[in-house]
Amino acid sequence: VREEFAPGAVILRHFVLPQAKAILAEVAIVVEYSPFRHMTTPGGYAMSVAMTNCGDYGWVTDHQGYRYSAEDPLTGKSWPPIAPLLYQLAVEAAVQGGFPDFQPNVCLINRYAIGAKMSLHQDKDEKNFDYPIVSMSFGLPAIFQFGGFSRSDSVQRCLLTQGDVVVWGGSSRLAYHGILPVKAGYHSDTGDCRINLTFRKVN
Ligand code: MD3
Ligand code: FE
């Protein structure tokens, strides 16, 4: 089901539902090598969302700021590679979203325990915004907030559930967005959490 949520933002509901278990199995392999961790914001707060990455680079934050790093600061090694299944599904979703030339080299993996949230923010660390971001959601549902180019702009809300994919390109790419605190619940594939993958192209 293809639905334009905002200019350039295409929701593919349940696009990876058939592959959800296989994708989560790939996430488990990544996590064995580069575990989930609560990173520290430049302001000194621990994020409620636990994160890891796979790919050529990973998104990291610490007292020095937000950036992409070729090395996992926790292991001192490279991040594990993006599994072919994940890569292929991200590329297929981007094609469906109108981006036939998207070749992601970063996958940020977010884990939301109950109560975890992500405040309104823009994704600007990639530097080249011509590439879209492809997101995939699993496990517990979450309310996603989508605003404008200014933090104070009004927001639209939508529920993201297991297998939903969103391609964020065009003018949606620099919009403010966030996730409200995840409500208590249980999902047979993830237990008491929500998992989100975002595929990005970073040079
Ligand atoms: C809209 N993640 O990792 S995914 C993030 O559910 C992030 O974990 C949220 O925001 C999550 O940066 C939201 C949907 C999403 C991802 C990237 C976007 C929406 C976006 C980039 C630009 C605009
Ligand atoms: Fe974001």
What does the model show?
Fe cation binds at residues 121, 123, 177. 2-oxoglutarate binds at residues 110-112, 194-200. This is DNA oxidative demethylase AlkB. This protein is mostly beta strands and 203 residues long. The chain has a single domain, classed as Jelly Rolls, CATH 2.60.120.590. The chain has helices at residues 20-33, 84-96, and strands at 2-6, 9-12, 50-55, 58-62, 65-69, 106-113, 118-121, 133-139, 142-146, 156-160, 165-168, 177-179, 193-200. The chain has a seven-stranded antiparallel sheet with strand order 1-2-11-8-13-6-3, covered by helices on one side. It has a four-stranded antiparallel sheet with strand order 7-12-9-10, with no helix packed on it. A hairpin with a 2-residue loop joins strand 4 and strand 5 (65-69). It is globular.
Topology:
Elements: E1 2-6, E2 9-12, H1 20-33, E3 50-55, E4 58-62, E5 65-69, H2 84-96, E6 106-113, E7 118-121, E8 133-139, E9 142-146, E10 156-160, E11 165-168, E12 177-179, E13 193-200
Antiparallel strand pairs: 1-2, 2-11, 3-6, 4-5, 6-13, 7-12, 8-11, 8-13, 9-10, 9-12
The site of fe (iii) ion has 3 residues, from loops.
